[in-house]
Each structure stands twice: as C-alpha cells, then as structure tokens.
Amino acid sequence: MLQFLRFAAGACCAVLLFAWGCAAPPRASAGAGAPPAQALEDVWLVTSMNGARVGYVHSVSRPETMDGAAGTLNESDARIKMGRLGSEVEIVVHTRTFEDSSGKLRRIEMDTQFSNQPGRFEGVVDGDVLRARSEALGEVREFEIPWDEEIISDRGLELLYARAASEPEGTELAGLTFDPTSMQTITYVLETGARETIEWRGEPVEATAVHFEMDLLPGMRGTAWIDDQGRALRTVQPVMAGVEMVFELSTKEEALAAGAAENRVPDLFSQLMIRSDVRIPHPRRVDEALFRVRLKDGVAEFPDFSFDRRQTVEQDGASERLLRVRRLDGTPGHVTRPVTGAPPDVAAALESSSSVQCDDPELVAAAQAAVAGESDAWRAAQTLERWVYERIDKKSMGVAFASALEVFREGRGDCSEHALLLAAMCRAAGIPARVVMGWEYAAGIFGGHAWTEVWCGDWYALDATNAAGGADATHIALGNSVMADGGTYEMFGNLARGIAAVDIQVVELRYGDRLVGADQLSTGHLVQGDVYRNELLGLAFAKPADWEFDSLHPEGFTGDIVEIEPPQGSDQIEVGAMEVPYFFDFDELRQQVGERLTGPVETRLDGRTAHLYVRTEGDTENRALFVLEDDTLFTFELRASSDDTRRLFHDFLATVDFDL
Q: Using CA atoms, how far apart are residues 469 and 466, in angstroms rounded to an integer?
C-alpha cells in the first residue's frame, strides 16, 4: 500500500513546476467501482496541502501475468487541484507498474495530464537500461535510461518502510526507486523514529515514525507513521519551505469528496510570493540590483546563488546576505549559428527531449524562417524571444506544465511555457538553450518565474515572457536545466530550499549610469513651476497655466500620480501609473472600462499607441487615455464641463514626454 510514496516524489516535483506558473479525466482506475477481483490491496488516501484538501490517491495491487511472467500489477490514480492567481489547475497522474515474482520492477506505464494535452510514458526493463517511450500530441519519442538492478518495486518500497518501522530507533536504511514523472532514479534514506501516539480518523493510534529523505529534494525531510499492520496512516512530505503535502489513509467516500469539483483549493502561487518592501519602477529596465536576502524564521539554509554568473554574494551572513545581480547581454558578432565548438557540457542544450521537442519538423521550419538571413547567434536568439512572446497569444496561468511542442501548436501558457518554447526554438535554430527557474520582480512582488538562457560563447539570459531583449537584474536564479529526459528535475533541490524560504529587500538599483537607493524610490518626482518630472517613471508633463497641482503622490507608480485642478469649478485632470503583469490585456481593460465609458479610439501620445475612452453625462464629459509603456500602464483622465477645458486637456497631452 506504500506505492503512493513513490508517487509523492513525482507529485512534489509537479507542484514545484506548478508554483512557477481543465484536465480531462484519465482512463478509469481499477478501483473506480467495486474493488477488483483478487485485489491484494485497495487503498484510498486524502491529499492535503498546508491543511487544505486538494485531492486523492487511489492505489490497487493484484496478481497479474504479463509477457508470460507471473507477478503483481500495481495501479494508482492521483488527482491534485490547486489555484494559481485565480486560475484552477488539476494535475492528474495514472500509473501502472509490474513487478515479477522476485519483486523486481519490470514495466512502468504512466498517463499524465499537466496541461490541456495528455502525455504517456512507458518503460520496459532490459538489463541495465530502461527502454522508454513517451507520447504527446501524437509525437512518439524512444530513448534509454540507465537502470540499476538495485531499484526496488512498489512492494519493495513497502517492505523497506515496514522493516524500518520494526527496527530500533535511529536505524538507517536506504533504497533506490524509479519515479516516472521525473524519469529519474531516486535514493530514499529512511531513519527509524520513535513510537508515537497520533490521532487518525478521530482516534488515538500507536504508530512508528519513519523519517525519510529523497536525493531529488535534499533537505526536505518527511515522515511516515506506520502502524502495527504495516500501513502508512499518515505521510508528511515537505515540498519547499513553508509548504508540505500530507497523504492520509482514508475511505473511498472521503477521498472522492476531497477531490470534488466544488471544493475551494489553495492558491499556491499566492502563498509563495515574496512581497517587496518597495515598488520598483520599470523593473524590466534594471541593469543591476543589490538585494538584502534574509532567511525566514525556522529556515536553516540559504539556497545557492553563486552557480549563476549574473549573481554575486557580497556579504555572507548566517541569516542575511547581500546579493548583487547584473544584467548580462550577449555581444553581437561574437558567435555565429549554428553554434559549433561549444564545450562538451553544452552539447546537451542542443538535444531534443520529451519537453523540448526541437526536432519537430514544423517547429524547426518556424524557427529557421523566423531567423532566416541572421547568422549572429545572439541577435537570432533575441529575434526568437520576441517571436515566442507574440506566438503565445493566450497568456494563461491555468496551465500547470506544457511541453514546447504543445505551446507551439496551441499558443497558450505562462512563464514556464514561454521558457520551454524559446529553448526549443533556439535549439532548432542551432543555438544551445536551457531553462532557468527562480524569482522575478513584478507588480510589487518577487514571484516564482521561469526564463531561458542561450549559449553564445557563454550563457546569457532571455525572457520571452517579457520580450525585453534580455533578462533584467530583478531575475534571481535558483536553478537551471537542459530538460533532458531522465534529468528534468535536477535543479529542484535548490528550488525547494529557496522558494518561500527568504524575504527580499531592495538596497539599490542601477538604470544605465543612474544609481538609485531604496530611499529614493519613494521620492522620484520633481515639480518646477508648471512642470512635473519623474525620472524613475520616465514621465514629464506641464500643467495648464493657472491650474494647480492639488495632490501629489510620491509613490505614483502604485496608482495615482497627481491631480490637477483649476482655481474654481469641478473640472479635473488626473494622471496615474500602474504596474501591470505580463499577461495584461487591453481587451480585459475594455470590458472593465466599457461599463462606464465608450471606446476605445486608437490614437497617439508622444509617439506611443494610446487608447481613448469617452463618456458624456449632461454637460460633463469624461475622457480616459491609456498608454502601455513596457510594464507600466499610464492613465490620463479628464473631467470637463466646458469646451475650454477640453482644449486645455488637448494642449496638456501635447506636453507629455515619456523619453526622459
């Protein structure tokens, strides 16, 4: 009944992927109705995350003969639902494993639903390799994964836990398992804990605590409580600092209720956000940043920052560090494509895999067409960054994790989908590429984010989510991966240690040659006579003569900047600025504004595209002009009761300058 523990490893990795960002049901499980005939075990578990029920796991074992060999077939269905900034995502995994009469694992099958398209993995043990086959979007990929004969089956894992529960306290045992979700061999280290009384299903029960740790998630120590019948009554698996999954033995009715559609699910992304102590204006323009990183209470270890050459730890304390991050862009003319002569460890960043299908003919043709005539590797990569940004026209947080090919065909996804597709397109164009995960600042928070690095003589970062021609210095890396089959999740140990483990404070920022301290971020404006000037926002304008600045908001980029009023009357001009996320959509704005204003009419303001909305009520006319400049939405609103004021507003707009 402990085969779900193997699933826990893959589930935790899936949750980590999800944190950086409607499924069809899998095929019916053996236990969907009555227990299957001759079932050895039929187990239902309720899955919770931080106290909220998010789904269930159903596991069944029964005798089976496969390929002429007698053995045991283990099946498990798992469903997990989580929220992601208002979107709800369901992760569905159905696994079948076959072990022979000696307990050796011989066959693995897995169906997954991490996105809008199902995926399938099959593997057959053949000596020292697992002959694997993956299928997604009608594309079949065959490959081999090294296999260790010491890998134990689900039943072997169950026996290992049962043995640990019977040993004296402090005993350590180890075993190897294979997780088809990550396509990796996992080392489990078990330690026998104390005999404890726990509450299970409302009753006190005696059980032995068995502590465990997986090399896939180093430092994330979990505990399973095993009763005298060898059953895991409750298993707690930390996923990352501050987030843990709990699997509790239950009944079919309770488990299905936990996965019911009407249940409210926790918003994991919101729980993991780090709120900035100050607002950063135009974060995509930050060339260098100095951050103070502090461990949260109860967290013992910092993540590793030094692996990324953009990042330097300048002050290394026990609970506080100063971290400097620099934007590094490639140099045009330095490396041509297709890239040749790269170091051996870079070669894997040109290969195709189940999640980065850079050998798909349609995708290859699109990549080559997008950079036709461009031989410079860095300029070609920047072109592809913009291409991916425009290709994914359905910006969505409702996709848990989709492959590059699925994103290429459907044009839907969030940051991880942008990162994967850009990696695939670059590889198809002969440019080595890998995926990076970490934090990015946006709209007042440091949130989990994914971007791409390309090799053009060295590794340089690009971010197709923003398409700014590079990755600004608010991108803090925690891990990178070439996303190879069998090695997709090698970066997750550092991610698990880092995400939600620290607080981040801004010390100083550099925009070009200008250095801005944290104290200056709230006093960025300057008023000289009729002229308002804000260097941080990159905005200046002149108020109408005889009108007055009625209200000034120093932290203008959080909303209103200034209100301007005449000496008499109720007419008014309001100027505002607001950070918007990468998935901001003018269509959504039109739906909101359209309830009270008509439009939009497309016009121009200081050379930028502007959207004008108008509403007239009696003698009063309201106008609202919106301009999107990088990641900031500027608003210019007018309330006018006379033609003179309307003319003044027209003259006022002519003074607006975004090019400071």
A: 8
- Closest-CA residue to 10 (of 39, 42, 47, 64): 47
Cβ atoms within 10 Å of 248's Cβ, excluding its own: 21
Output the pTM of the full model: 0.76
Are 597 and 591 contacting, i.e. CB atoms less than 8 angstroms apart? no
Tell me the domain boundaries of the chain. 3-270, 288-517, 523-653
Report which residue type is found at 644: D
Q: How many residues does the chain have?
A: 660
Residue 545: both structure tokens together? 């003569």
CB burial class (10 A; 0-12, 13-18, 19+) of residue 617? exposed
Residue whose structure tokens are 């504004």: 593
Write down the architecture of domain 288-517 according to CATH: Roll (3.10)
CA distances, 507 to each of 296, 415, 563, 577 (Å): 18, 27, 30, 23
Q: Please write the tens of the pLDDT for every residue from 493-538.
A: 677 667 768 899 999 999 999 999 988 876 667 888 999 988 788 8
256: phi then psi, degrees, rounded to nearest 5 = -65, -35
CATH class held by domain 523-653: alpha beta
- The long-range contacts involving 340-344, CB below 8 angstroms and separated by at least 24 positions, are 342/432, 342/455
